[in-house]
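Weekly puzzle thread! Below is a chain. First person to post its structure in token form gets bragging rights.
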Amino acid sequence: MLKTLLKSVREYKTASILCPIVMVGEAVMEIIIPFLMTFIVGQFEDLSNGIIDRIDIGKLGLYAGLMVACAIFALLCGIWGGKLAAKASSGFAHNLREDMYNNLQTYSFANIDNYSTASLITRITTDVTNVQNAYQMSIRMLVRAPILFISSIVMTLFIEPMMAIVFACAALFLGVVIAVCMYKVVPYFRTMFKKYDKLNAVVQEDLTAIRVVKSYVREDREISKMQDASGEVYHYSVKAERILTVMLPCVTLAMFVVNLIILTVGSNMYVGNLSGGITPKSMQTLIQYSAQILTGVMMVAMCINFISLSKGSADRICEVLNEKTTLPRPVDPIFEVKDGSIVFENVNFAYSQNSGVNVLNDINLKIAAGETVGIVGATGSGKSSLVSLIPRLYDVTEGRVTVGGVDVRNYNMDNLRNKVAMVPQKNVLFSGTVAENLRWGDENATEEELRFAARQACAEEFIDALPGGFDYDLGQGGVNVSGGQKQRLCIARALLKKPHVIIFDDSTSAVDTHTDAQIRASLRKYAPQTTKIIIAQRVASVQDADKIIVLDEGKIVGIGKHEELLKNNEIYKEVYQSQIKGGDENE
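Winning reply:
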């Protein structure tokens, strides 16, 4: 896990390495200051008779000056170390988010199916922030704290070995408390992050579908869902924090007990001259070192607190970083797609290799370049799955699919997808102007090319009617246009790619039959060499196709023209008659 995460440090290695070194400087100064204090206290130790002439003002000034210098140097080291830690941790988080997002872009649809959108958002935001905080604490405190602890123990051994044993016992006690707390708290944090995914999913779903929520007057129900999801996060967060709150009181208790032992045992030894006695200056130093020892333990406890919080986050981040695409890239890819001819040879396909259930079975199909092909079938018959194999959104389980005479697995994926345009069922537009959305098809498209594509998609007229025309801002997700207008913009965007193959996955369902017919006529006229595959629920949308494919339960049960299928295919005939009858009744 650490190896995976630390790859994202990259250009911030220098700051990450320099920060602990600077923190060592701060820790060393904090160790030296109590030692110098003993010399100052020693100047007053034998003044029981009040003779001030015994004070060496020169030495007193020297040690005081050294203490001030050490304090200033420690302050500068602390400030510099804080800046370095902030730079290193923020840069690390920046790279981590970038690496996760870049790897997400390589995912196939099969990879994406393993994660919910809400979960991925949580991992890129909350989880990375948790890891960032733990990283910052680690490079600052996990070096400084052990040095404070070990050096203070060593210094105590020189002053009074018995007290060093007391400090070690206190540290051992705190170590056990911290270990038990971490053992109990980590499972709660892991569960809490899963609940965060659920919370984000509820928020995302409600905000996306806010119009539906309001139209069905379901605000109260959705508020209740939100409260439940938020309550679960609260529940596990409180459980974890209750455990962690034990640590600070334990550190405080240990510090008071140790100081009490120093004062009680030390004063008895001094008064009774036991074991040579502990002088006041030694007691002062021991108290300061005890504070540093226990402060070091407390710093480690804080670091472990952050690390335990981030452990679950780190695991979830590594899942995203280590996920490998199910679509391996060819060693020697082919970059040119010759034409739009398509062949399915003995194709079987399942979304999950372990499910044992094929979505498509024994598909054999040939489509010539420039043909218009319709695909019909009941919901769940495999229509969308079939066309998803053409631009290699998924790989076949068995058999092969070729475009332009070449297996799609041998193409450079970007080149293949640039020549196979797909207009999916769900029409997705982005924030920005009409022109900016259309230029997803060709970022260098001229205004004339934008107009030509819009004209083919029967979108030019309504675009010109918009305030600003092609410069009209569509709003987030295209909220400022209707469903049918969205579909036509998506078709125009796909046409700008000048593809060899264009796939319409039920993408004219929101336009009227007259506009649908106009779009098909325009495509026949202006893109005769482009292979057109039309998935449609309406028979009218495909009845003039060169061939129509009928799918049923993942199998091809009929291929032919409209008239042939009406005579020879019962499924196609039933679909057609039900639509004709429905149309008559409506009339």
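Puzzle host: Confirmed. Bonus trivia for everyone else. The longest strand covers residues 342-349.
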